[in-house]
């Protein structure tokens, strides 16, 4: 599998850093890795995409699902450090309108409250 | 009164008029009384009564006072007369004193004063004044007499004094109104005329006889006459006096004595008339008689005076009595009035208080008036009225209460009834709703759920009823010869009746169509059958076409139905040429006409009912035929029939904007694909210096995509951006093919070929799966939906279309071919391929 998931907890926020490529083949594994998020109300999570080289619609779907779960449970969900090609994919799909992104993890932690 | 009231009223008013006329003279007083308050009325009466009494008693009192004054004056007169008479007596004695007897000087001197005083009294009559003057003059003369004068001269001189004095006495009596006193007139006569005369005469008689002079003899004679004549008058006077003053018991004896004396004197005179001058016995008799006369005078005077005193007392008493009576009368009247006033006032107060109490709401207030006057009637009437009123009010209240109770009872009962009825109605409505829902489901079940299609053609339709149940329907059937029949129909009306007829018509039409007969024959036979089965006199418009999918030819007939619209290959929209035959079930034995046409590749036929064109928006504008044609013209040739139907429904819904549907909306689209069976046509784009970069066979398993990605990245080392886009598109398309086109089969191969030229990067995918166009199958994602509404799926194809400048899919008979083109130039501003 060409994707890695690293989980760090800082200031009460769960930071998920993804490394490699997120496609339809491995999206299932990542989904399992984040299944604990937004199970309780008020969870806060940041997905760090600095080291993610590639994302397809499967990955987009996963981010959308996380964002919807966060909304339902009153949590906060943010992405940060999107690489330009990855950012372009989010943009084309219109996801930048509905997901919050920040340049880096610190900015995301500041904003997430 | 010119109006004509009812008879009793007229009599009443006439009576009132009569009253008014008879009492009209009383009006001023009545009006005055009306102006005054109660106490003022009584005050007025009181004042009037007092004035009246005063006016009546005043003359009385005045009279009494007058009489009192008169009596007092008479008393004064008596005294004056007495003093004058005493003076007379003295004077007479003086006259009778023989010359040389008593001192002639001192005697008269004593009389000076008295005579002077007497003569100086005021006399009201001329006679008195004259007499007074004469008296004075005569006395002067008499005083001037000396010893030289003879007796007869002296006698005459004194007579000259005596006579005026006698007159004065009478004048005095007159002045003092003694002579007009009816009860004392005889007495006064006696006192002022007779007795003084008697005094005088007694003296004259004796003196004349004593002087023995022949010239004085007549005096004696006249004296005798006077004396004799005087006695009856004196007796009468005495009798009068006795009668008015019985206490004067001494009068008669005195008179008797005088009478006796006078007789004696006269007798004595008779005896000596022939002789020489009378002796002293006559003089003594005369003197004695004079004394008796004087005594009688005094007694009478006293008696008269007493009598007058008595009268005065009586008058005074009368005065007091009158005064007392007046006071008593006034007091009595005042008392009575006060009583009446208070009583009336009390009654009135009671009346007014009682009525006021009653008006203030104390309905048990009654007026108690204990008097016997008319106010009692008022009180009684009021009490009766109040009684009645209270009773009536009580009755009304009772009635009201009982009616209220009744009403509330009725209301309760009615409410319960209503509630029950409501419940029943609502249950019934509920049942009806359920039945209708069931019916709708049944009707929907009648409509075809599956749509036929072929390699290059599709049919899709929809019917949206205006109410729960609709009267429109569509249907498709495969004919024995393999052709497809399509049918669209519209029953007149909507709702349950139309739905029933729709079911019947459908059965008839499908049955006839299934025989494979030509459309006109189908319609004609259906018409005849439906005319028989039409109790509600409904009718139905029908369009029936038979489509030959091999050639694209259609033969069709319509009965009263709007002509379908056809979008031709060049994008024009035309109406299918139609003959407008009559709708079915109107009348039997009608002929219909079959027409022919052809549906070419990329063309689509839209069959519809008037529920589409006659969909009204809130302001009343209809969707209309033009708008429908415009919409069809805008539709894309690569859209499948289902998508088109969906779009049309959405378009009409948006137009109607929530207004209530007026008719069932039905549309059926038969579309023929573009030349799918044709060989793949490469896009006519300039590809200069085309170089093959990659040729890869990919097993249809998802993890293999990653390996392809590495190969693609390796083939584009200096264009990582192109590699990213290419890989993304490849992953999306391949995932789609594997998941949807191959339905998950993992044993197929997808061949990927990537080439580059100066202008374009070209990627070709080839599989050997059944025809599957990923670009047609996926709905466009709505990129503007918010997080909550954004669906999870539909992204992949969108990404491909966005990242690639051109993306087409073909089916070349053995499998699908996908050709992607991306411009190489940065930034991409190249012409899009045709």
Number-wise, the strands of chain B total: 15
**Treating each run of at least 4 consecutive H or I residues as one helix, how many helices of chain B?**
20
Overall tally of domains of chain A? 1
Mean pLDDT of chain B: 83
Number of helices of chain A: 4
Side-by-side strand order of the widest sheet of chain A: 1-2-3-4-5
Tell me the overall shape of chain A.
Answer: globular
Uncertain stretches of 5 or more adjacent residues of chain B:
100-105, 676-680, 828-832
Biggest sheet record of chain B: 5 strands, antiparallel
Number of strands of chain A: 5
Please indicate the count of domains of chain B.
Answer: 3
Which CATH architecture of chain A is right?
2-Layer Sandwich
What letter string, H or E per element, gives the SSE order of chain A? EEHEHEHEH
Radius of gyration of chain B: 84 Å
What is the overall silhouette of chain B? rod-shaped
The CATH class of chain A is identified as Alpha Beta
Oligomeric state of this protein = heterodimer
Structure description:
The complex is a heterodimer of chains A (113) and B (834). Chain A is of the alpha/beta class and 113 residues long. Chain A has a single domain (3-112), classed as Transcription Regulator spoIIAA (2-Layer Sandwich), CATH 3.30.750.24. Chain A has helices at 27-33, 57-73, 84-92, 105-112, and strands spanning 3-10, 13-22, 44-55, 76-80, 101-102. A 5-stranded mixed sheet of chain A has the order 1-2-3-4-5. In chain A, helix 1 (27-33) links the parallel strand 2 (13-22) and strand 3 (44-55). The longest helix of chain A has 17 residues, at 57-73. Chain A is globular and about 30 Å long. The mean pLDDT of chain A is 90. Chain B is α+β, with helices and mostly antiparallel strands and 834 residues long. Chain B folds into 3 domains: 60-325, no CATH class; 449-672, PPM-type phosphatase domain (Phosphatase 2c, domain 1, 4-Layer Sandwich), CATH 3.60.40.10; 691-823, Heat Shock Protein 90 (2-Layer Sandwich). Chain B contains 20 helices and 15 strands. Chain B has helices at residues 7-22, 27-35, 38-96, 106-120, 126-144, 151-175, 185-211, 217-244, 251-272, 280-360, 374-446, 496-514, 519-532, 610-613, 624-634, 641-656, 704-715, 720-741, 774-777, 796-803, and strands at 457-464, 472-478, 484-491, 540-547, 553-559, 565-567, 573-575, 595-598, 604-608, 665-672, 691-699, 749-756, 760-766, 806-811, 816-823. In chain B, the strands form 3 sheets. Chain B has a 5-stranded antiparallel sheet with strand order 1-10-9-6-7. Chain B has a 5-stranded antiparallel sheet with strand order 2-3-4-5-8. Chain B has a 5-stranded antiparallel sheet with strand order 11-12-13-15-14, with helices on one face. The longest helix of chain B is centred in the middle third of the chain and has 81 residues, at 280-360. The two termini of chain B are 113 Å apart. Chains A and B meet through helix 2 and helix 3 of A and helix 17, helix 18 and helix 20 of B.
């Amino acid at each position: 599998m060409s994707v890695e998931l690293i989980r760090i907890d800082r200031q009460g926020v769960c930071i998920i850093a993804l490394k490699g490529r997120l496609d339809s083949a491995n999206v299932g594994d990542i989904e399992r890795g984040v299944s604990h998020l937004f199970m309780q109300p008020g969870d806060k999570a940041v997905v760090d995409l600095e080291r993610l080289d590639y994302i397809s619609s499967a990955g987009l779907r996963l981010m959308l699902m996380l964002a919807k779960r966060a909304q339902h449970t009153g949590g906060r969900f943010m992405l940060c450090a999107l690489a330009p090609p990855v950012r372009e994919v989010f943009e084309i799909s219109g996801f930048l309108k509905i997901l919050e992104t920040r340049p880096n993890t610190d900015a995301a932690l500041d904003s997430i409250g | 009164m010119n109006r004509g009231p009812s008879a009793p009223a007229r009599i009443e008013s006439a009576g009132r008029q009569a009253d008014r006329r008879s009492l009209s003279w009383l009006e001023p007083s009545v009006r005055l009384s009306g102006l005054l308050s109660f106490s003022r009325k009584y005050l007025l009466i009181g004042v009037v009564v007092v004035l009246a009494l005063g006016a009546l008693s005043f003359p009385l009192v005045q009279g009494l006072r007058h009489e009192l004054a008169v009596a007092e004056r008479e008393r004064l007169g008596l005294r004056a007369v007495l003093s004058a008479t005493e003076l007379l007596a003295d004077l007479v004695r003086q006259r009778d004193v023989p010359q040389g007897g008593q001192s002639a000087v001192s005697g008269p001197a004593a009389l000076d004063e008295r005579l002077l005083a007497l003569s100086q009294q005021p006399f009201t009559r001329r006679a008195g004044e004259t007499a007074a003057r004469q008296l004075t003059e005569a006395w002067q003369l008499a005083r001037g007499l000396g010893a030289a004068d003879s007796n007869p001269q002296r006698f005459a001189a004194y007579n000259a004094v005596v006579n005026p004095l006698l007159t004065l006495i009478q004048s005095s009596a007159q002045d003092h109104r003694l002579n007009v006193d009816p009860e004392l007139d005889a007495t006064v006569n006696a006192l002022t005329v007779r007795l003084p005369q008697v005094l005088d005469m007694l003296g004259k008689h004796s003196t004349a006889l004593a002087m023995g002079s022949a010239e004085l003899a007549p005096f004696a004679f006249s004296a005798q006459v006077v004396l004799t004549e005087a006695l009856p008058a004196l007796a009468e006077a005495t009798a009068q006096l006795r009668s008015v003053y019985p206490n004067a018991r001494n009068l008669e004896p005195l008179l008797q004595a005088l009478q006796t004396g006078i007789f004696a004197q006269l007798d004595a005179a008779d005896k000596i008339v022939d002789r020489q001058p009378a002796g002293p016995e006559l003089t003594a008799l005369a003197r004695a008689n004079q004394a008796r006369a004087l005594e009688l005078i005094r007694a009478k005077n006293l008696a008269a005076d007493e009598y007058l005193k008595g009268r005065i007392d009586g008058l005074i008493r009368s005065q007091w009595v009158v005064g007392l009576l007046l006071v008593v009368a006034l007091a009595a009247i005042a008392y009575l009035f006060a009583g009446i006033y208070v009583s009336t006032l009390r009654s009135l107060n009671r009346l007014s208080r009682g009525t006021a109490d009653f008006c203030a709401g104390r309905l048990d207030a009654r007026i108690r008036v204990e008097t016997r006057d008319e106010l009692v009637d008022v009180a009684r009437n009021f009490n009766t009225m109040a009684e009645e009123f209270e009773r009536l009010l009580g009755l009304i209240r009772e009635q009201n209460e009982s009616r209220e109770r009744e009403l509330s009872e009725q209301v309760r009962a009615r409410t319960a009834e209503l509630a029950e009825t409501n419940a029943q109605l609502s249950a019934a409505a509920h049942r009806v709703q359920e039945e209708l829902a069931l019916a709708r489901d049944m009707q929907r079940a009648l409509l075809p759920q599956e749509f036929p299609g072929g390699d290059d053609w599709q049919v899709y339709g929809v019917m949206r009823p205006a109410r729960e149940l609709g009267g429109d329907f569509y249907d498709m059937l495969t004919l024995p010869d393999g052709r497809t029949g399509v049918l669209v129909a519209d029953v007149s009306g909507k709702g349950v009746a139309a739905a029933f007829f729709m079911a019947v018509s459908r059965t008839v039409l499908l049955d006839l169509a299934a025989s494979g007969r030509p459309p006109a024959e189908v319609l004609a036979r259906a018409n005849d059958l439906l005319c028989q089965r039409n109790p509600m006199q409904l009718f139905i418009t029908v369009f029936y076409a038979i489509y030959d999918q091999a050639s694209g030819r259609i033969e069709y007939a319509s009965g009263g139905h709007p002509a379908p619209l056809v979008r031709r290959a060049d994008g024009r929209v035309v109406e299918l040429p139609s003959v407008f035959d009559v709708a079915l079930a109107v009348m039997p034995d009608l002929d219909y006409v079959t027409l022919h046409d052809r549906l070419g590749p990329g063309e689509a036929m839209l069959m519809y009912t008037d529920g589409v064109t006659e969909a009204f928006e809130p302001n009343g504008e209809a969707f209309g035929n033009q708008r429908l044609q415009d919409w069809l013209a805008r539709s894309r040739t690569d859209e499948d029939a289902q998508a088109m139907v969906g779009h049309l429904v959405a378009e009409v819904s948006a137009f109607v904007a929530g207004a209530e549907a007026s008719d069932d909306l039905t549309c059926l689209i038969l579309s023929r694909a573009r030349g799918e069976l044709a060989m793949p046509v490469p896009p006519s784009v300039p590809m200069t210096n085309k170089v093959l970069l990659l040729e890869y066979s990919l097993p249809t398993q998802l993890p293999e995509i990653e390996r392809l990605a590495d190969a693609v990245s390796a083939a584009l080392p200096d264009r990582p951006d192109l590699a990213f886009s290419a890989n993304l598109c490849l992953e999306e398309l391949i995932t789609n093919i594997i998941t949807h086109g191959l339905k998950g089969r993992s044993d197929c191969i997808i061949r990927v070929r990537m080439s580059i030229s100066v202008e374009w990067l070209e990627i070709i995918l080839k599989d050997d799966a059944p025809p599957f166009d990923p670009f047609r199958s996926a709905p466009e994602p709505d990129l503007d939906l918010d997080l909550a509404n954004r669906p999870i799926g539909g992204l992949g194809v969108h990404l491909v279309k966005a990242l690639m400048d051109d993306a087409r899919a073909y089916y070349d008979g053995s499998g699908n071919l996908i050709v992607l083109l991306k411009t190489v130039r940065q930034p991409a501003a190249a012409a899009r391929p045709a």
